[in-house]
Write a structure and sequence with these properties.
There is one protein chain. By secondary structure, the chain is mostly helical. It folds into two domains: about 50 residues, Arc Repressor Mutant, subunit A (Orthogonal Bundle), CATH 1.10.10; about 60 residues, Homeodomain-like (Arc Repressor Mutant, subunit A, Orthogonal Bundle), CATH 1.10.10. The chain is built from seven helices and no strands. Helix 1 crosses helix 2, helix 2 crosses helix 3 and helix 4 packs across helix 7. It is elongated, with a radius of gyration of 25 Å.
């Protein structure tokens, strides 16, 4: 309170909410995730991701890393490898087509990155997971088959 009985300077200060948390707002992160998912086959640059978030390139990179713990490029590569795993186990597409579908321009570079991230070559991944899917399908057929008498 002021000496004259009126409100003091504190009365005009804005109330502060919880402390600011650095990182991307959830809606910005969702926009970037959707943009990446929709454009994995394209060559994506930091500028493209920043534009999707509505931020400058440097501001986006810092906030993205603060939010996800990953630099944007590492996140992008991770998304590409995860999509490739799904395509390898769910489709008979040739390796070169899968590499192109997830944004790698070279099937050789794709194989190198896939092996580094997954610990196995893409074709080994396909064989292991196709066999597992066949076992899962057979088990599912056994439990949904005809009832024994």
């Amino acid at each position: 309170m002021a000496p004259d009985g009126g409100p003091g300077p504190q009365a005009f200060q804005r109330r502060r909410g919880p402390p600011f948390r650095s990182g991307l707002a959830p809606w910005r992160l969702a926009r970037v995730e959707a943009f990446v998912a929709d454009n994995l086959a394209r060559p994506l640059r930091l500028n493209d991701l920043a534009r999707a978030a509505g931020l400058s390139r440097m501001h986006f990179a810092a906030q993205f890393r603060a939010t996800t713990g990953l630099p944007p490029h590492a996140y992008l590569v991770s998304c590409r490898i995860e999509r490739a795993k799904a395509l390898l186990s769910d489709t008979p597409l040739p390796l070169a087509d899968i590499a192109c579908a997830v944004g790698f321009r070279s099937h050789s570079h794709f194989s190198t990155v896939f092996r580094r991230r997954s610990g196995v070559a893409p074709m080994q991944w396909r064989r292991r997971h196709a066999a597992r899917d066949d076992v899962d399908k057979a088990a599912s057929a056994d439990t949904t088959g005809a009832v024994g008498l």
